[in-house]
Amino acid sequence: MGTFNSQDWFPDIKKLARFVFELSDKRFVSYNERVIDRILESYPIRLNSLKKCIYTGEDLATRRIDHHKVTALYIQLCLENKVFKLPPTITTRVGASVSTKLINEMFCVRLAKDVLEAWNDNRFDTKKFKKEYMSSFLRLLWHYKDRAAWCKRHETSTYALAHAIYFIERNFMM
Questions:
Q1: Could you list the mean pLDDT of each consecutive 10-residue stretch along the chain, which spans 174 residues?
Q2: 150: which residues sit within 8 A by CB, 6+ positions away?
Protein backbone atom coordinates (compact mmCIF):
# COMPACT_ATOMS: atom_id res chain seq x y z
CA MET A 1 0.00 0.00 0.00
CA GLY A 2 1.32 3.40 -0.93
CA THR A 3 1.38 6.22 1.58
CA PHE A 4 -1.12 9.04 1.52
CA ASN A 5 -1.29 12.35 3.35
CA SER A 6 -3.97 11.48 5.88
CA GLN A 7 -2.61 8.02 6.69
CA ASP A 8 -1.41 9.24 10.08
CA TRP A 9 -5.02 9.79 11.18
CA PHE A 10 -5.81 6.09 11.39
CA PRO A 11 -4.25 5.38 14.82
CA ASP A 12 -6.46 8.21 16.15
CA ILE A 13 -9.51 6.77 14.40
CA LYS A 14 -8.75 3.43 16.03
CA LYS A 15 -8.48 5.10 19.46
CA LEU A 16 -11.76 6.88 18.90
CA ALA A 17 -13.44 3.60 17.92
CA ARG A 18 -12.13 1.91 21.10
CA PHE A 19 -13.38 4.85 23.17
CA VAL A 20 -16.86 4.71 21.60
CA PHE A 21 -16.97 0.94 22.06
CA GLU A 22 -16.03 1.24 25.75
CA LEU A 23 -19.02 3.55 26.26
CA SER A 24 -21.39 1.35 24.25
CA ASP A 25 -23.99 -1.17 25.38
CA LYS A 26 -22.02 -4.38 24.92
CA ARG A 27 -25.18 -6.48 25.10
CA PHE A 28 -25.79 -5.37 21.52
CA VAL A 29 -22.53 -3.87 20.20
CA SER A 30 -19.36 -5.67 19.17
CA TYR A 31 -16.15 -4.21 17.79
CA ASN A 32 -13.09 -5.67 16.11
CA GLU A 33 -10.08 -3.38 15.50
CA ARG A 34 -9.36 -5.18 12.23
CA VAL A 35 -12.28 -3.27 10.72
CA ILE A 36 -10.22 -0.07 10.99
CA ASP A 37 -7.29 -1.91 9.39
CA ARG A 38 -9.55 -2.90 6.46
CA ILE A 39 -10.67 0.71 6.14
CA LEU A 40 -7.01 1.79 6.09
CA GLU A 41 -6.34 -0.71 3.28
CA SER A 42 -9.40 0.47 1.30
CA TYR A 43 -8.83 4.18 1.75
CA PRO A 44 -6.01 4.69 -0.79
CA ILE A 45 -7.98 2.80 -3.45
CA ARG A 46 -11.08 4.94 -2.91
CA LEU A 47 -8.96 8.08 -2.65
CA ASN A 48 -7.32 7.27 -5.99
CA SER A 49 -10.72 6.63 -7.57
CA LEU A 50 -11.99 9.98 -6.32
CA LYS A 51 -8.85 11.78 -7.54
CA LYS A 52 -9.27 10.20 -11.00
CA CYS A 53 -12.77 11.61 -11.13
CA ILE A 54 -11.62 15.09 -10.07
CA TYR A 55 -8.26 15.35 -11.86
CA THR A 56 -8.86 13.60 -15.16
CA GLY A 57 -5.60 12.99 -17.01
CA GLU A 58 -3.35 14.60 -14.40
CA ASP A 59 -0.60 13.12 -12.22
CA LEU A 60 -2.64 11.95 -9.23
CA ALA A 61 0.37 11.54 -6.94
CA THR A 62 0.88 15.31 -6.89
CA ARG A 63 -2.78 16.21 -6.42
CA ARG A 64 -4.60 16.55 -3.11
CA ILE A 65 -8.24 16.72 -2.15
CA ASP A 66 -9.72 19.03 0.46
CA HIS A 67 -10.42 17.99 4.04
CA HIS A 68 -14.18 17.85 3.42
CA LYS A 69 -13.71 15.06 0.88
CA VAL A 70 -11.14 13.31 3.09
CA THR A 71 -13.64 13.36 5.95
CA ALA A 72 -16.43 12.18 3.64
CA LEU A 73 -14.28 9.22 2.57
CA TYR A 74 -13.52 8.34 6.18
CA ILE A 75 -17.22 8.41 7.00
CA GLN A 76 -18.26 6.42 3.94
CA LEU A 77 -15.70 3.72 4.63
CA CYS A 78 -16.71 3.53 8.30
CA LEU A 79 -20.36 3.16 7.34
CA GLU A 80 -19.67 0.63 4.58
CA ASN A 81 -17.52 -1.51 6.83
CA LYS A 82 -19.72 -1.00 9.91
CA VAL A 83 -17.08 -0.30 12.52
CA PHE A 84 -19.50 -1.60 15.16
CA LYS A 85 -21.57 -4.71 14.63
CA LEU A 86 -25.14 -5.00 15.86
CA PRO A 87 -27.54 -7.94 15.83
CA PRO A 88 -29.56 -8.13 12.59
CA THR A 89 -32.77 -7.24 14.40
CA ILE A 90 -32.48 -4.85 17.28
CA THR A 91 -35.41 -2.96 18.74
CA THR A 92 -35.90 -0.51 21.55
CA ARG A 93 -38.37 -3.02 22.96
CA VAL A 94 -35.47 -5.35 23.89
CA GLY A 95 -33.68 -2.53 25.66
CA ALA A 96 -31.50 -1.04 22.93
CA SER A 97 -31.37 2.75 22.92
CA VAL A 98 -31.49 4.84 19.77
CA SER A 99 -27.82 5.69 20.37
CA THR A 100 -27.02 1.98 20.35
CA LYS A 101 -28.97 1.39 17.16
CA LEU A 102 -27.20 4.34 15.51
CA ILE A 103 -23.75 3.71 16.98
CA ASN A 104 -22.00 3.69 13.58
CA GLU A 105 -23.63 6.97 12.60
CA MET A 106 -22.86 8.51 16.01
CA PHE A 107 -19.25 7.38 15.63
CA CYS A 108 -19.09 9.16 12.26
CA VAL A 109 -20.49 12.37 13.77
CA ARG A 110 -17.75 12.27 16.39
CA LEU A 111 -15.14 11.48 13.73
CA ALA A 112 -16.26 14.46 11.63
CA LYS A 113 -16.21 16.71 14.72
CA ASP A 114 -12.68 15.62 15.66
CA VAL A 115 -11.33 16.01 12.12
CA LEU A 116 -12.91 19.45 11.69
CA GLU A 117 -11.53 20.63 15.03
CA ALA A 118 -8.05 19.38 14.17
CA TRP A 119 -8.07 20.90 10.70
CA ASN A 120 -9.51 24.23 11.79
CA ASP A 121 -7.77 24.53 15.12
CA ASN A 122 -11.14 25.68 16.48
CA ARG A 123 -13.87 24.18 18.66
CA PHE A 124 -16.99 22.53 17.34
CA ASP A 125 -20.22 23.97 18.77
CA THR A 126 -21.73 20.64 19.84
CA LYS A 127 -24.71 22.21 21.59
CA LYS A 128 -25.75 24.24 18.55
CA PHE A 129 -25.13 21.26 16.22
CA LYS A 130 -27.29 18.94 18.33
CA LYS A 131 -30.09 21.49 18.44
CA GLU A 132 -30.06 22.54 14.80
CA TYR A 133 -28.67 19.73 12.64
CA MET A 134 -27.82 16.48 14.45
CA SER A 135 -31.03 14.62 13.60
CA SER A 136 -30.80 15.59 9.92
CA PHE A 137 -27.15 14.58 9.71
CA LEU A 138 -27.82 11.25 11.44
CA ARG A 139 -30.60 10.55 8.91
CA LEU A 140 -28.19 11.36 6.09
CA LEU A 141 -25.56 9.01 7.51
CA TRP A 142 -28.14 6.27 8.04
CA HIS A 143 -29.07 6.56 4.34
CA TYR A 144 -25.40 6.33 3.36
CA LYS A 145 -25.02 3.19 5.46
CA ASP A 146 -28.24 1.74 4.08
CA ARG A 147 -27.10 2.40 0.49
CA ALA A 148 -23.39 1.72 0.99
CA ALA A 149 -23.03 -0.49 -2.08
CA TRP A 150 -24.40 2.22 -4.37
CA CYS A 151 -22.39 5.00 -2.71
CA LYS A 152 -19.22 2.96 -3.10
CA ARG A 153 -19.61 2.94 -6.89
CA HIS A 154 -20.63 6.58 -7.35
CA GLU A 155 -18.23 9.38 -6.48
CA THR A 156 -21.11 11.86 -6.49
CA SER A 157 -22.12 10.50 -3.09
CA THR A 158 -18.70 11.52 -1.76
CA TYR A 159 -19.16 15.02 -3.18
CA ALA A 160 -22.61 15.32 -1.61
CA LEU A 161 -21.37 14.20 1.79
CA ALA A 162 -18.35 16.53 1.49
CA HIS A 163 -20.75 19.43 0.92
CA ALA A 164 -22.71 18.49 4.05
CA ILE A 165 -19.42 18.45 5.98
CA TYR A 166 -18.54 21.88 4.55
CA PHE A 167 -21.97 23.10 5.71
CA ILE A 168 -21.29 21.72 9.18
CA GLU A 169 -17.86 23.35 9.28
CA ARG A 170 -19.22 26.70 8.14
CA ASN A 171 -22.12 26.73 10.61
CA PHE A 172 -20.89 24.93 13.70
CA MET A 173 -17.20 25.76 14.17
CA MET A 174 -16.47 28.48 16.74
A1: 61 95 95 94 85 69 77 93 89 77 96 91 94 96 84 77 95 94
A2: 157
